[in-house]
Structures are given as C-alpha cells and as structure tokens.
Amino acid sequence: MKKKIIILIAIIIVVIIAIVLYTKCLCNKKDVVLSNIKSNQIVKSPLTIEGKARGSWFFEASFPIELVDEYNKHLAVGVAQAKRDPATGEVNWMTEDFVDFEAKIEFVAKQDMKGFLIFRKDNPSGLPENDKEIIVPVNIAKTDVSTTSKVYAYFNNNRMDPEFSCNKVFPVEREIPKTSAVGRAAIEELLKGPTETEKSQDFFTSINTGVKIQNLTIENGIAKIDFDQQLEFQVGGSCRVSAIRSQITETLKQFSTVQSVIISIDGRIEDILQP
Prior knowledge:
Layout: H1 2-28, E1 32-34, E2 41-43, E3 47-54, E4 62-69, E5 74-82, E6 98-105, E7 113-120, E8 133-140, E9 148-157, E10 170-177, H2 182-192, H3 196-200, E11 203-204, E12 213-219, E13 222-227, H4 238-253, E14 260-265
Parallel strand pairs: 2-8, 13-14
Antiparallel strand pairs: 1-3, 3-6, 4-5, 4-7, 5-6, 7-8, 9-10, 9-11, 12-13
C-alpha cells in the first residue's frame, strides 16, 4: 500500500515538473514580453511601456501599440521604439532574438474603465498572413481633468453641407492630455477619424486610415506638416483631394500661431494629392 502511495506521489511530482517545463517553454516562445505591465494592471496617462520583443516584430526599429476600451473604442496609439544595445550603442532590430523597447502613450479616460493594450507586429508587406498581435487586458484609470485640454478636429458633414462642397469642413471637440505640441495632438485626433457618436451626426473623413505624421513645425505663422505615403494612397478626384487639404489646414489654423499650412509627403510638396 505504501509502495503504491509513493509511486502515486512520484507520478504527481513528474506531472507537476512537466507542466512547469511546458509552461516555461510556452513563455519562452512569446514574441512580446512586458517588464512593467501585467494583465489587469491599473494604468493611467501618461503611460510608459517597457519590455522586449522579437526582432521580427520591428520594422525600421519600431512597431505600433494601441490602447482601446472594452468596447474596442480607440483611445490612443503609440510606437514601441527599439533601444540601443548598451554594449555597442547601436539599434539592432534585424534579429530573431529579443530586442528591448520602450513606448510612451498619452490618453484621456473620462472614467475608470476596462481596456486592452494591443501590440501589433509591424507589417510593411500588408499581407494578412504576416499580421500578428498580442492583447493585454488592463484597467484604465480616469484621467485628472486638470491635466487635459480641448482641441478641434475638422471633418466633412453631409447634414451641415448637404451639397458636399468638398472644401467645407466642420469642427468637433476633442479632449487631449495637455502638451506643448498641441498642433500635432490636434492632427493626431483628426487622423483617428470621427467617433461613432460623431458618425451618427453625419461627420465623416476623407483621409485614409493609418496615415502617420512624420514631421510638424510651426514658424513665422507657417505650419509645415509632412506625412507618409498613406495620405495619398489610392486617393483620386479633385473633390476628395480638396476635402483632405481642408481637413488638415483648418485643424491647424484653429491655433493663433498658424496663418497658413504647407502639406508634404516624404518631403515632397509639388506633386502630391493630385486629382
């Protein structure tokens, strides 16, 4: 009898060891490992995220991170930036090994809520088979209103402009974390597109999804803003081009420091956003 008990205990120990080793194996196979964020942790703005990811997740030393609420409503987007190797001082992301990264995200939460951090593998090919994401549940803390400010993003609206005059756009108010780069923050809100509530009020955008700001400077009353090629991807027709320009221009001209706006794509000005 005692022998059977000893054998049973031995079997249980072996099973436990096997489970531990299997779990460890699975952990080692993770593509993204966070060092300062755990599942269901309380997070608040500004949020710093640190960890490591497989080099295959990066493109040009970065990959995107998104914060959404429990209803999948977009709250903020950030960029995980590969850190420099302390031994060489270089940023080496072209590897299958883990690469340390850091990201900073600012957002406004009007109440305590549940949400998700979504880590997306950068996929310059655009092929669905190369898409990959890791989702981490978090508890989002309400943002202190004393740390926020309001800006406007400008959209087209069928109800306010039933004839759709193309270059006529209308403001919607957005609350953002206080920042000295308020112009860039306003354009980031514009690039998010209208919310579901705003869509129900007939607001819509003529700007492609996934557009990124590459640079923005404001000097002597002139705002110069440079976007990536996604801004003009498959954009055609003089009406849509006019609408895109108006959305960007009016969103920036809400600020007294901006009298005129120059839009460029990858540094090009002359041949962009053609009908």
